[in-house]
Structure formats: C-alpha cells, structure tokens
UniProtKB/TrEMBL annotation:
Biological source species: Dysgonomonas alginatilytica
Keywords in alphabetical order: Membrane, Transmembrane, Transmembrane helix
Domain Inner membrane component as annotated: residue spans: 5-54, 70-120
Protein name: Uncharacterized membrane protein YccF (DUF307 family)
InterPro entries in the cross-refs: Inner_membrane_protein (IPR052937), UCP028777 (IPR031308), YccF (IPR005185)
Transmembrane segments: 6-24, 31-53, 73-105
PANTHER family: INNER MEMBRANE PROTEIN YCCF
Record's GO cellular component terms: plasma membrane
C-alpha cells in the first residue's frame, strides 16, 4: 500500500512529465534503425518513471558484455550523462525537505539506469 501511495503522489507531482519526456524521446530515437536500441532503453527509463516505488534496477547476467559496454559508452556520449545530471539535480533539490526525501531517492535510483541502461533490467522489488 505504501508503494501505491508513493507512486500515486509521484505521478501527480511530476512523474508523468518525466515519463512522457522519455517516451517522446524514444519515439524520436526510433525514427532510424540505428536509434532503435537507444529508443528501447529510453522506454525502459520511461516505464520506471511511471511507477518507481517498488521497483529496482538489476544487472542481466546472461547479456553480452562487450556490446553492452560499447552501447553504454555511446549512450553516455550522446545524452546519458546529461540525463543523469538532471536526476542528480532533482534528487538533491527534493532531498532538501523531509517530505521530498523519498522522491529524491527515486531520482537517485534513476541515475544508475540513466548512465548505463544496456545490460540492466527493471524488476519488482
């Protein structure tokens, strides 16, 4: 019940805007064939942005390491660094107040996935 209430508050106070931003970016990335893997990773971020409480990011053990590393490096260069910086900013801003701490921690959870989305999966906690 606690996760449901947290997710509901998250959606009302800006979670929907972050998710919408990720989904629009994923559509823009999928215009080209080369951008499809990056668009899929953006969808992964968007799904987490819709319902972050009760979810966690785990590493997929059976995924190919070399390709994931190359794709993560390209992702960081193209925009992942700036996405992560945005989550650092909003996380720090929200952690200023006691009420905002759980929401700030959710932004900090996004940083790991925003930097290295390839080889990661979002699962229920």
């Amino acid at each position: 019940m606690r996760n449901f209430i947290g997710n509901l508050i998250w959606l009302v106070f800006g979670g929907w805007a972050i998710a919408l931003e990720y989904f629009i970016a994923s559509i823009a990335m999928m215009i080209t064939i080369i951008g499809i893997p990056f668009g899929l990773q953006s969808i992964k971020l968007g799904v987490l942005a819709v319902w972050p409480f009760g979810s966690k990011v785990v590493t997929i053990e059976e995924s190919s390491g070399c390709l994931n590393t190359i794709m993560n490096v390209i992702w960081i260069i193209v925009g992942g660094f700036w996405i992560a910086l945005t989550h650092v900013f909003f996380g720090a801003l929200l952690c200023i107040t006691i009420i905002g701490i759980p929401f700030g921690l959710q932004h900090f959870k996004f940083i790991k996935l925003a930097l290295f989305p390839f080889g990661k999966k979002v699962v229920d906690a």
